[in-house]
Design a protein that fits this description.
Layout (H helix, E strand, L loop, with lengths): L1 E6 L13 H10 L2 E6 L6 H11 L3 E3 L9 H6 L4
Parallel strand pairs: 1-2, 2-3
Length: 80
């Protein structure tokens, strides 16, 4: 069993899968990945990740801001 504990599913190049994230996830499952933890990068990323997680019970996601975001983004980040 493999768990991808840090993936950026909204940033993944799905060109090899005809632009289909579902096919990319299926390919990873075929190689033995059984769980995915998708990491939020910016303030709005978690919205798309929540939609992906709704479609795939083996996908979890985080809500947060990547520490490399610009200063303005970091200033807007709050616990709310």
């Amino acid at each position: 069993m493999f768990v991808d504990t840090h993936c950026h599913l909204t940033m993944l190049d799905v060109t090899p899968y005809n632009g289909d994230l579902d096919l990319a996830l299926a390919a990873a499952r075929a190689e033995g990945v059984s769980k995915f933890m998708a990491i939020s990068v910016d303030l709005d990323d978690h919205i798309a990740l929540a939609e992906i997680a709704k479609r795939h019970e083996d996908v979890g996601y985080t809500v947060g801001v990547h520490p490399c975001e610009d200063v303005d983004t970091m200033a807007r980040a709050t616990t709310e």
